[in-house]
Amino acid sequence: MTSNSEEPKKPGVGQIFLEELNNQFKPPKKDDKKKGVASQTLLIPLLAVITGLIIGGIFIILTTEQVYAAFGQSFGAGLAAAWDAVSKAYSGLFTGAFGDPARMIAALQSGDSLQIRRAFNPILESLVTSTPYIFAGLAVALGFRAGVFNIGAEGQIFIGAITATFVGYSVTGLPGIIHVPLALLAGAAGGAMWGFIPGWLKAKTGGHEVINTIMMNYIAFRLSDFLLTGPMKRPGSFNPVSPEILPSAWLPRFFPDPIRFHLGFFIALGIAYLVYWYLFKTTWGFELRTVGTNPNAAKYAGMNVTKNIVLAMSLSGALAGLAGANEVLGVNRNLAMAFSSGYGFDSIALALLGNNHPLGVVLASLLFGTLRSGATRMQLTAGIPNDIISILQAVILAFIAAPAIIRTIYRLRKPTVEEAGVTIRGWGG
Amino acid sequence: MTPVLELRGITKRFPGVLANDHIDLTLEQGTIHALLGENGAGKTTLMNILYGLYKPDEGEIFVNGEPFQVRSPSDAIARGIGMVHQHFMLIPVFTVTENVMLGEESLKPGGFLDRETAAKRIREISIQYGLEVNPDSYIKDLPVGVQQRVEIIKLLYRNANILIFDEPTAVLTPQEADELFEIMRSLTAQGKSIIFITHKLREVLEVADIITVIRRGKVIGSVLPSEADQSKLASMMVGREVKLELEKEPARPKETILKVENLIVTDETHQVAVDGVSFEVREGEILGIAGVQGNGQTELVEAVTGMRDVEDGKVFLIGKEVTHAVPRKFTEAGTAHIPEDRQRDGLVLPFPVMENLMLCTYYQPPFAKGAIIQWEYVMQNATRLVQEYDIRTPSIFTAAGSLSGGNQQKVIVARELSRPIHLLVAAQPTRGLDVGSIEYIHSQILKRRDEGVAVLLVSTELDEIMQLSDRIAVMYRGKITATVSAEEATKELIGLLMAGVPLEEARLQIHKQTTQSETIGGAN
């Protein structure tokens, strides 16, 4: 399987793509016609991340006892200790996320395959952590594009994991080439069903999807608890855990243990491209985006608004379901209680950080995946609690959600329409 | 004599825009000074500066020769400057007296409202200036024209000497507008001074003592009405020659395209908005629907384009019944629809111009092959339409929302008129647009008519109806009360019909007026 051919790199795509990235989801206010330009679309998330790291650093300093002790001795010693704490934490985060470069080189030179695997494991582990984020982030982003707020990704992940697990252990005698896609499809179908219900309720009764998806989450959690302690409980086990998924349904891993890097990552990239293609290359996607941006105009243009809302919620659910299936088939190989550590909730943040664009979501997911996987290492080496990563993520998101703060801190001016126009005309000569 | 108000070198910059560029304006006592300019010319900004809502970057204001620092509307009111806003600031469930007193309450001992004294003053004011109104009526029961009088009384009650009228005729019938002009003259006759903001040429010539034209934030010049005519003012406003009179050949109507029978449509609150309306529109003619806003025109248009379901009655399009059809069915049968609210229905503002230009037929070839959008063609199409319809946009990738109102409307017009059509439903096609865009859109509508398209034109602008229509139907309280030919239609007649006067009676009144004026003319 080659992933490169599926990357959005084809000629002709670029122009539209950039425009999409710039224009979508920034409805101009009537009294305030100022809007962002291309550079700021990318600049603001970047600055948000940098600012997040700085504020994270402050928290690291504030929570390290040695720093207080050092400041008690002298101001200089305090500063040195503060710097020491932050640099230790962030270098731990870096090596945890990407691996230790020196060790990688040494391993490559030694030529020992076990050494190499161990040296490169951190970066591959980051990709493993990023994978469910990509699926779930795409799910929420697709919903946002259609104007629906799918808070139910977490529940849809659980249902997708349940259905994928069930197909994974109960269907026997299939070759991997059939069993894996079947289990993935089952996961997508389960999630789709869990998204369809609130979508249908919204379209038919006007019930708000935010409320209904939250309720669906609770149903999903308790349903999974019930299944794992009852019908799907592993025979003979004392723990609430499902039977082992059959090896024929496992997502293939590329390296021997302990490296868990598996096919799911490339499937996620492929799905991201599919979502991009769907949204920006097809009439279906055009309808979905129109319905999401201006339902009145969609109706005027002859589009079926309710159909598109139900469809978007179902597709969104399917993507979230894939996140769940990916985890059980690729990483856990069984279903345990509370197996998802809030991927579905983080994904709302990912969609926002990625500007609801598939490429943006992939990049945001890689960032979050690396932070999460690096945090564990940071805790080990620097003794910094990995909760600091939650603070970091929260700060980044706060800034993404309120770009005005970033503009104020870095004195970015809101570019006006007229200026943007002049620039474009200027290029034309 | 010292002018009551003088603005010197007022400059106001917004990021990237020079809204007011060294504007000088002098208002003499007892005159009506018209401020004429297109939308976005800077009239409203200037008045907001005078009213204390914006702070000018440069320039000074003098009232009665004294420098005047205005920080808030209350400063302005204290110095006798008052503004009649386009949208009234009245509380519907209060009486006239209560509304006038609001913020300026006179009290009886013990802190009770002294309505009697206030009502007495209101009566005095209304007699003095000819502002007929009953102080005890509730605002919600009063027609729009009378509500406007209450707004004026509010200002006079606070002893305003300088009155600013911001587009005051936009909400009035022609008769009500004439009454307003009478009131304005009586105000100036008694020493009040008026700034009259408008973009309507006819009105300034009728009522103003001096006209100052503003274009792109600059004063282009001041003229006396006696020295100006409509085309001169229009070219000053726009900055080029403008054809005001459309060259229009007589219509040659052929087959019936749209036929509506006993149509009943309800609004959002399930009230009957269109009440048993019947009419037909034929190939090559323009049927204009006149009426004061809110008499069922919006619902009518939505019903004959599939946007709103019909309660009862029938709609036929080229002989086929389409009564409960969805919008797409109308589009595919050859209907073009310029919607009343372009930003709500007609455009997806954050989408680029090129996507808005394919909004109704995006799923048909050559825009799409199967479900795959042909972006090459979409771009070609957009480039061609932008050129052909003179849409001023930095590029076809620019969000429609960042274009000016006129160019947004041109995007809709280009999209709707660039495909083969049999019926054009145009609702308020030029609302809020500048003279240049109006001229262009009118010429496009006429061109389609001459090509054999049936046109249903709905507008509250009487001038527009009169200029374009071959037949005029007047809507009043959900019913079409009369249909008259373009030859018979005069401003007075349509105005009376718009106010609900039955056709026979309206004809009689107009006949009387003309004979009366002839007799008077003869006696003199």
TrEMBL record, chain B:
Keywords of the record: ATP-binding, Cell membrane, Membrane, Nucleotide-binding, Repeat, Translocase, Transport
Membrane topology: Peripheral membrane protein
GO CC aspect terms: plasma membrane
Domain ABC transporter: 5-241, 258-502
Gene Ontology molecular function, alphabetical: ATP binding; ATP hydrolysis activity
Official protein name in the record: Heme ABC transporter ATP-binding protein
Keyword Iron-sulfur appears in the UniProt entry: no
UniProt-listed Pfam families: ABC_tran (PF00005)
Family annotation (InterPro entries): AAA+_ATPase, ABC_carbohydrate_import_ATPase, ABC_transporter-like_ATP-bd, ABC_transporter-like_CS, P-loop_NTPase
Localization in the cell: Cell membrane
